[in-house]
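Annual report, structural modelling task.

Input specification for the flavin-adenine dinucleotide complex:
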Amino acid sequence: MTPGRIVIVGAGQGGLQAAASLRQEGHDGPIVLIGAEPGLPYQRPPLSKAFLKTGEADKLVLRPRSFFDRNAIDYLPQTRVEEIDRGSAEVRAGGRRIAYDHLILATGTRNLRPPVDGIDAALDLRTLADAAALRAALDRPRRVAVIGGGFIGLEFAAVARRLGHEVSIAEAAPRLMARAVSPLMSERFLALHRALGSSVHLGVPVAAVSATGIELADGTGIAADLVLLAAGVRPNTELAEAAGLRIENGIAVNSRLRTSDPAISALGDCASYPDPRAGRRIRLESVQAATDQARFIARRIVRGEDAPYDALPWFWSDQDDHKLQIAGLAGPDDDAVAVGEAAVFRFAGGRLTAVETVNDARTHMQARKRLGGMAAPSREQLHATGYDLAV
Ligand SMILES: Cc1cc2nc3c(=O)[nH]c(=O)nc-3n(C[C@H](O)[C@H](O)[C@H](O)COP(=O)(O)OP(=O)(O)OC[C@H]3O[C@@H](n4cnc5c(N)ncnc54)[C@H](O)[C@@H]3O)c2cc1C
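The model returned the following structure:
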């Protein structure tokens, strides 16, 4: 049964996709899309890449204004949902009460701010407003310190170096992108950033931030007049938690992406779901997860499809001229086998879990195909073919 009015909280990548897919699938009831940010929904990936160079905000917009009129999507920008009242099936936002038959939560994440002295002086890179402020700050020579050697911090560092700024990167873990890639790939990107001229500090957390720079826990001082905080995020779960929904590293959803209340779904960065390949509950921070989950929920609502969500996770990160792509999801301890110059194959229990590539879109696409089914190829099989995924 197609519920009448669908309300979506959060107008980012996933919330917008949910609204678009609901219409595409043929939902003909009202759709209300509520977002806390001003302007039209936009994509975040270019904020740490092209936008820092070009400043072209128009290019980030996901759909033009006419899209919302044409598809009868009631879009409420700059409107924060303050409460979900499950008893009356309403949300409270901007002094209004908006009724829903089905509610979709796509509230995303916000920056983690570690309890470090002076951390408020560090800038964020999450929203278009954050990116515009950073871009403006880079209009004169800067000594930049980046706290966090994950995708976003490293993308920003690479751009800042190319723009001629002095760059230092401080990562508390012993290697770069430790949550996302193999040690082999971490080494490769460490070499890239050092070759670009950034100084990289690994294995020591930041102890303090001040007007003159940052200080590491071992006493090392790093002079800086611009500090970027890119040390991870936390899911925006407060609204769901206050409404009594189950929370487990994000808003917990089941294999159909329903929360503990069947009238409410959740997706994207804010939601954790049981991943059938990993055999555990995971929460992803990627465009792929937000959009695939949005399409899945739309199909489930409109067509009544009742299959578990099983899309293959994949990721990318552009750092200088290196396009890193990852198909699949590896655990931190999965084996890593270097294949040629540009690929690393990851294995757990003798089965392929992920393939990391640099500037090799063909292998990435082949890996997505091979990992897309439920039976991943074994290490023996791949070894026998010289790790050729096309065979
Ligand atoms: C700088 C940067 C670079 C990135 N690069 C990549 C990349 O290269 N590849 C990749 O796959 N991913 C990348 N990502 C991650 C990707 O953008 C996210 O995974 C994706 O946007 C998640 O979509 P979402 O809809 O779950 O959340 P978001 O797109 O973050 O949207 C959530 C929205 O909900 C709003 N909201 C929250 N609470 C409320 C409320 N109570 N009421 C109303 N609105 C609310 C927020 O304001 C926000 O606009 C990047 C992210 C950033 C910040």
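The domain at 6-110+233-303 is CATH 3.50.50.60 (FAD/NAD(P)-binding domain).
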